[in-house]
Automatic annotation (TrEMBL), chains A, B:
Biological-process GO terms, alphabetical: carboxylic acid metabolic process
Pfam families membership: Pyridoxal_deC (PF00282)
Cross-referenced InterPro entries: Group_II_Decarboxylase, PyrdxlP-dep_de-COase, PyrdxlP-dep_Trfase, PyrdxlP-dep_Trfase_major, PyrdxlP-dep_Trfase_small, Pyridoxal-P_BS
Species of origin: Rhynchospora breviuscula
Required co-factors: pyridoxal 5'-phosphate
Protein name stated in the entry: Histidine decarboxylase
Family in the record: Belongs to the group II decarboxylase family.
UniProt entry keywords in alphabetical sequence: Decarboxylase, Lyase, Pyridoxal phosphate
Location of N6-(pyridoxal phosphate)lysine modifications: K277
Gene Ontology molecular-function annotations: carboxy-lyase activity; pyridoxal phosphate binding
């Protein structure tokens, strides 16, 4: 894993007075050791200058890395500079419940609740019927949703497709829940046949189902109506809880024409979304919304007199800056702005897929998704250069609002140039990825038409 | 709970164009609803102006609240403005393991590992023997430490004193662990007698003990040597795991003369500390350190190919700004600066306790602690005004570096003035708090000497 990042970090430290200590277990990372400051005005000035120097170089490094990023679903194009400048001197902490004010006054609940109301409206649940909070990341939203499911059905079995985000399996392990992995279709969607078969093997226990509204790797969407139908017709009526992991798509799908709705009018229990993905945010954050009737199950056990509040959140202390930034972003963009951005992502994703395919590169783009899956590039340096996320034979690009046509062209050109070398101008056969993304999307010698 | 905070928030919105929606379930909080922006240059400018207006008023509110804050262990005096200004345009995310670089290049692992190394050195564990990460708050550190304990001893029983932070009991519930509450002494320290008695009732199962290095309410420190001694002499040798919740004191105690050491040379399993408390940070964060031999137990189950990393952390996405700020704070302050600040806190805490007692107010200050516990003020408005944390008959002030003698004097004067009114110049008897803080600290009619 020694690639361009590692090298640039080593460079970062080379002409820096802070000693660089390479780590034994840490291939590719070099730490900027903290040294004890010396006494005296000159020493303090020298120390401050050396810190400044590290930061300036770090910023250059971040700029370059931000420019060459395609693999993770993060919109890296945002500008909260003026808001953050105003608030960076305060320790804003939304301790405990968003709806119950604690004694700690340096909070941002008035912004947080506005953000929650906005999402509740988006996902169609009334103010008095929902509970939720701004989380520290998508994982926390999944951890919360699945915990609510477990509290509703303590002996419930968790069902999640094998292409589910790893945080869901982590939750099962943390919470000591029985967990059944369900097969997926080539698209990445949950296999209905397998879900039904596995439900029937466990008829005696309630079902807690994680539905993926956009899988991590292929951006596949599980059909909520179908999940509900399968549950109900197999004897699970009133004995199921559905958590929707909508990390990325929870904010995009509502803006696609003809996309199925993420709505609490369907019998779902909770929805979580990330705040740093489609909207963009300088720190990971997210939102989880659940039904207020369930929240009581958690809060009864979590009265905290010390805070004069209730703590039903996973984390106790919660970053109060994130809700203000989300409030700012949503207030300025509005539904219209987000719709425009979401549709642009879809268009650019189609452009990327077409450019890949016309260049003879196997690629898949699921409907309702801006995640373009394609043959994994051979050279790890290239993967690192563009920060592609990979799994097995495939890699993906998640087209976010900051991924422009110009950037896509730059990427494609570089990829094609590299491929010439990797496949020696066609002398080496291209890999078959039919198993990963389907025959119809594979352009290997065997499958291309 | 309608007090000064609620009122000031209502005022915040009064002359603001954004509609203020009072929440049904949310006494004392008024949310700043997000409205859809209108189209057109003028409408956009008006919207931006209204957003700016909300933020300017919010900043004024935060300033006032920051000035009148005594109850929570947060050092509100820090200045990372220039660092944050440099970094606020990037989405820095330390996905997964701090020691294994993922494909996502916009990270701050080189700073994070430096911070971890610094704490490992402080708590005396070698680089190759520890594992840890920068968490999103103290709770995450406790959740991680206790999870490690449970993975080491899957059938272990969690023992925690009843004055333990609520996150530990939340962990027990989340992790489906058997949990035994242990009595405390008046000081807040764990009762050795009761710990021994309860251990003996459960000899057949390993013990996972949460030791408080500073309880939340009284700042009491459990004696690690004694905990270990009790475990070993009651047949738990090699069958126990100790997690140290050092949220506040983990960074202060090492700088007090004659304080017992928090050290991995003792058979402890993990230590967690908050980053936004004694050091001060604009967002909650923390550090957890455990032994690398244990970390393997978690990581074996959490290989994440998609990230090209391992995820043994509770949260998957991790705020990359916090490690840079911690690195900056620790680099500039160093051991010397922290020692000076910690000792000043102790001196000021003694000053506060003495001023309270000479004014006839019952008060307790534990050794090694800067948490001054005293009679709960009668008027909730006063409690909110100074943001005191309360439990039953008692309130506390946690003396942090930003709590100066001037501020203490201001607080005492206001308190004395209010008390004149509350107790009608002595016509109403002062409450007895002997049960909460001990006879020797109680100045009620019955107990004062």
């Amino acid at each position: 894993m020694v690639g361009s990042i590692a090298n640039s970090l080593v460079e970062l430290g080379e002409d820096n007075t802070t000693p660089m200590v390479p780590l034994v277990d840490n291939v590719g990372t070099t730490c900027l050791a903290i040294t004890e400051p010396e006494v005296g005005k000159e020493a303090v000035e020298a120390k401050d200058a050396s810190i400044e120097d590290v930061l300036v170089k770090y910023v250059e490094h971040l700029k370059e890395r931000t420019q060459h990023h395609l693999g993770y679903p993060y919109n890296l194009d945002f500008d909260y500079g003026s808001v953050i400048a105003k608030l960076s001197g305060f320790s804003i902490n939304n301790l405990g419940d968003p709806f119950i004010e604690s004694n700690y006054g340096v909070h941002s609940r008035q912004f947080e609740v506005a953000v929650l109301d906005w999402f509740a409206h988006l996902w169609e649940i009334n103010k008095q019927d929902y509970w939720g909070y701004v989380t520290s990341c998508g994982t926390e939203g999944n951890l919360h949703g699945i915990l609510v499911g477990r509290e509703v059905f303590p002996d419930g079995i968790l069902y999640a497709s094998k292409e589910t985000h790893y945080s869901v399996f982590k939750a099962a392990r943390m919470y000591r829940m029985e967990c059944v992995k369900v097969e997926t279709l080539v698209s990445g969607e949950i296999s209905w046949e397998d879900l039904q078969a596995k439900l029937l093997l466990n008829r005696n226990k309630p079902a807690i189902v994680n539905a993926n509204i956009g899988t991590t790797v292929k951006g596949a969407v599980d059909d909520l109506d179908k999940v509900i139908q399968i549950l109900e017709r197999n004897g699970f009526k009133d004995r199921f809880y559905i958590h929707c992991d909508s990390a990325l798509f929870g904010l995009m799908m509502p803006f696609f024409n003809q996309a199925p709705k993420i709505t609490f009018k369907k019998p779902i229990g909770s929805v979580s979304v990330s705040g740093h993905k489609f909207i963009g945010c300088p720190m990971p954050c997210g939102v989880v919304i659940t039904r207020s009737i369930y929240e009581k199950k958690l809060s009864d056990f979590n009265q905290v007199e010390y805070l004069a509040s209730v703590d039903s959140t996973i984390m106790g202390s919660r970053n109060g800056l994130a809700p203000v930034l989300l409030w700012h972003g949503l207030s300025r963009k509005g539904y219209k702005g987000l719709r425009k951005a979401a549709q642009k992502c879809l268009r650019n994703a189609i452009y990327l897929k077409e450019r890949l395919r016309e260049s003879g590169i196997s690629a898949l783009l699921n409907p309702l998704s801006s995640t373009v899956v394609f043959e994994r590039p051979i050279d790890p340096t290239f993967i690192q250069q563009w920060q592609l996320a990979c799994e097995g034979n495939i890699a993906h690009v998640v087209v976010m609002p900051n991924i422009t046509i110009t950037k896509i062209d730059e990427f494609i050109e570089e990829l094609l140039e590299m491929r010439e070398a990797w496949f020696r101008g066609g002398k080496i056969a291209k890999p078959c990825v039919a198993e990963n993304i389907g025959r119809e999307n594979c352009l290997c010698e065997l499958h291309k038409i």
